[in-house]
Amino acid sequence: MMPKQKTLSNKEIRNFFLELPSEFSQKVPKKGLFLVKDIEKTTILFINKKPYFFKVDNAWIPTLFALKDFNLELKKVTVDKGAIPFIVNGADVMRPGITNVDDFSENETVQIIDQNNYVAIAIGKALFDSEKIKAMSSGKVIKNLHYVGDDIWKQNE
Hints:
The protein is an alpha+beta fold. The protein has 2 domains: about 5-70, Nuclear Transport Factor 2, Chain: A; about 75-145, PUA domain (Archaeosine Trna-guanine Transglycosylase, Chain: A, domain 4, Roll), CATH 2.30.130.10. The chain has 5 helices and 11 strands, in the order βααββββαβαββββαβ.
């Protein structure tokens, strides 16, 4: 089945930028082909054929491509090399694999960083605030929303 797709009108593009946090909208180009596709229950926004944002709970979340290409900043959770194979296969982030945590709130969107290469390998949603995570010794702490090799990643043409 072909994914549903739609080219955005100028008004829809303006609305998209209004929905983005200002620190993101300042860095994202305003010109180009803006297209949304629904793939496997996920709405993905493409700019010039590259997947740059996806929608979760009615909010636009930057993809790993957007973080890199537009130099967007999310709070960071750094994981050790033992956690990486699980995370890039879609697993949520468990407390024992974490080596460092920025300060953030519960439900905040964060990037998961590979401790060895210091690159983002996933985007997730914090299930607890950073202070609680630091105090924990076990359990699931970040819900994995997007990771290297997932369906969003594979949309990069």
